[in-house]
Amino acid sequence: AQGQTTDAMIIALFGAVLIGTVIDHFVRPMIIQKFSKSSNQSSALDHTLITVLSTLAGI
Q1: Sign (positive/negative) of CA torsion 34, 37, 42, 45?
Q2: How far apart are alpha carbons 36 and 50 in whole angstroms?
Q3: For 18-32, what is the mean pLDDT?
Q4: Residue 57: closest CA among 14, 26, 23
Q5: 43 — phi, psi (to 5°)?
Q6: Mean pLDDT of 36-52
Q7: 43: phi > 0 → left, psi -120 to 50 → alpha, else beta; which?
Q8: Residue 40, by phi and psi: left (phi above 0), alpha (psi -120 to 50) or beta?
Q9: Distance in angstroms (rounded) separating the CA atoms of residues 25 and 32
Q10: How many Cα atoms are found within 13 Å in the side-chain-facing hemisphere of 9?
Q11: 50: closest CA among 40, 42, 24, 33?
């Protein structure tokens, strides 16, 4: 697969946009909020385990 620079750039750009924007800014906060509601917490920051796991997932 040598010489497919354009394809590689398209895949890299798509990955950066999808992961960097959609997942980090929209999907992860919704998942954290859903888990915090299911564990009967008042906010996502009240639950230490969810906060630590979401931080590690972002790294």
Answers
A1: negative
A2: 8
A3: 81
A4: 23
A5: -150, 165
A6: 67
A7: beta
A8: left
A9: 12
A10: 4
A11: 33
Which of the four pLDDT bands, split at 50, 70 and 90, describes residue 40?
A: low
The token pair that represents 12 in the structure block: 């890299």
Q: Model pTM? A: 0.49
Query: For residue 36, what is the enclosing H or E element?
Result: helix 28-38
Report the alpha-carbon distance of residue 18 to residue 10 in Å, rounded. 12
Please give the structure tokens belonging to residue 37: 């509601």
Longest dimension (CA), the chain: 54
The one-letter amino acid at 43: S
